[in-house]
# Entry
Amino acid sequence: MALCVLVKEWAERRGSDVVALTVDHKLREESTREAEQVKHWVNAMGIQQHTLTCDWPVRPSPSSLLRSARRYRYKLLIDYCSTAAPNCGPKYPHLLTAHHQDDQIETFLLRIGQLFSGVDGLASIQPHHPSRQGVTIIRPLLSATKVFTKI
# Structure
């Protein structure tokens, strides 16, 4: 949600549009309800939202679940963004994700425990990913920590 607030303000100052994408992996019973809640929140902010749904041909095994979900998620996101706009490149040439510093730490710790992760794997999440199908992935919140407060 923080990324939606920040990007909406930035885009409004430039006369640009923002579209929020939610991926429903369909791996948990409550995932569809959660995606609908996110849609409600984002629409209340005045941002258009689309839910992309994973239609697994075969459910991944527990050992490959995280990797398979990440691959499928990015495939859906990139496919949505790269849909051609009339007479030009991708409709949405930039995909911003809300990965933050805590995600970076978690990724590093997961990868350090993997055999053959290598230096590239230990570099963890990159702030900028080269173009895929004409869509550049940008992670502007990697230096921000997630803050939890007690209510």
Observations:
- Residues 65-82 form the longest helix (18 residues).
- The CA atoms of residues 102 and 146 lie 7 Å apart.
